[in-house]
């Protein structure tokens, strides 16, 4: 998840609530001038990652985090 919220597990009982809470934190941070970027989803060492892992990791970031933080 992001920002301490369980935003990546749809089976979590707090999934929907956590996603909405994370969005509010993102909005508040952006209002203070913060910008968000992607440095990967799984914090993998991209120097040794296969292209397949890189593609899967990037897709997961765009699917799970991108909708919460907006364009990066």
Give a written overview of the molecule.
By secondary structure, the chain is an all-alpha fold. It is built from 3 helices and no strands. The chain has helices at 15-31, 51-64, 66-69. The chain is globular, with a radius of gyration of 13 Å.
Give the gist of this structure.
The protein has 72 residues and is an all-alpha fold. The protein is built from three helices and no strands.
The low-pLDDT segments are none
Silhouette: globular
- How is the biggest beta sheet arranged? none
Q: What's the total number of strands?
A: 0
Task: Please report the number of helical segments.
Answer: 3
What is the rounded distance between the termini? 17 Å
Our estimate of the beta-strand percent is: under 5%
Classify the helix fraction into a percent range: 40-55%
Question: Which structural class do you get from the secondary structure elements?
Answer: mainly alpha
Output mean pLDDT: 93
Rg over CA atoms: 13 Å
- What's the SSE pattern? HHH
